[in-house]
Amino acid sequence: MRHTRFHSTLLAAVSAVLLLVGSAAAITGGQLDGEGHPAVGALVADIPGVGRVPLCSGTLVAPTVFLTAGHCTANLPAVGVDRVLVSFSAALGASNALIGATYITDPAYGHDRGDLHDLSVVLLDDPPVGITPAALPTAGLLDELHRGGALRGQLFTNVGYGYSGRETGSGHPRFLYDGQRRVSTSPFSSLTKSSLKLQGNGNATGLGGVCFGDSGGPAFLGESDTIAAITSSGSQTCSGASVSYRLDTPSARQFLDQFVALP
Predict the structure, then answer these.
(1) For the chain, what percentages of helix, strand and coil (3-state, to nearest 5) are there?
(2) Which residue would you say has higher pLDDT here, 142 or 171?
(3) In whole numbers, what is the pLDDT of the chain averaged over residues?
(4) Is 134:60 a contact under the CB 8 Å cutoff?
(5) Sign of the alpha-carbon torsion through 26, 30, 34, 36
(6) 251: CATH
(7) Could you give the 3-state DSSP secondary structure of residue 249?
């Protein structure tokens, strides 16, 4: 999620990395995913002078194509990172199998006030074994559903490796991180030309949301394997509404068409 700095329990280095990616949005009000969504993985980078750090979440959309948010990779060249790693394990750890990869940020990211172009593809050196890629949406899918009234009350499934919540009390809040893949459900809120807004967790919905570290992770349409959008930003308290970047728009499809067959 594109936010300013925050306190975490991960490593002292994580705060520097979060500033580097501009924010990384975790699942809140959800539960452990286990093997529920094996195509969702974690983006990891070896930062010079810092070490190996988890950055964002993402999804396999073709045998060797992993999709994440543009703000997760846009500033990596500035710190000398031209290679990244991806894990599809349900929990990050020392024994994780990591796949080497290169990344390509949408060149239009940050250059269009009307459309964030918050996309990046990560090209894996090898396909992960036994994992079926998730599906991309057809052109204009969300517009079509919105016109027909089907988005009213529609639920979306968030999946990611981000922070699972926060501790409150004296001083600054501490965000909790354990490197595990989680899943939550959020109701539809509104739709713009390039973004899908979802309601956050709390008493109003009784459901869940996303937080730091979930950036780039999928917002699946209902319980399907179709990614309607990817997590882009949210509230600094990880309790409010979130914004996901749509994948069914002409601009998103123009970028993705270079790397994967579109439906």
Answers:
(1) 10, 35, 55
(2) 142
(3) 84
(4) yes
(5) negative
(6) 2.40.10.10
(7) coil
Q: Could you tell me if 106 and 70 are in contact, meaning their C-beta atoms sit under 8 angstroms apart? A: yes
- Tokens (6 digits) for 87: 């894990």
Number of domains in the chain: 1
Q: What is the pLDDT of residue 166?
A: 59
Question: Three-state SS string across the chain, please?
Answer: CCCCCCCECCCHHHHHHHHHHCCCCCCECCEECCCCCCCEEEEEEEECCCEEEEEEEEEEEECCEEEECHHHCCCHHHHCCCCEEEECCCECCCCCCEEEEEEEECCCCCCCCCCCCCCEEEEECCCCCCCCCCECCCCCHHHHHHHCCCCCCCEEEEEECCCCEEECCCCCCEEECCCECEEEEEEEEEECCCEEEECCCCCCCCCCECCCCCCCCEEEECCCCEEEEEEEEECCCCCCCEEEEECCCHHHHHHHCCCCCCC
How far is residue 29 from each of residues 166, 175, 211, measured CA to CA in Å? 11, 14, 10
Q: Containing domain of residue 187, as a range?
A: 1-263
Average confidence (pLDDT) over 184-196: 93
Work out the angle at residue 86's Cα, subtended by the Cα atoms of residues 95 and 234, and round it to the nearest 5 degrees.
115
C-alpha 83/C-alpha 76 separation (Å) is 9
Provide the 10 A C-beta neighbour count for residue 176. 16
pLDDT tier for residue 20 given thresholds of 50, 70 and 90: very low
pTM score, whole prediction: 0.86
- Beta pairing class for 51-62 and 65-68: antiparallel
User: pLDDT per residue over 235-249, tens digit each?
Assistant: 666 667 789 999 999
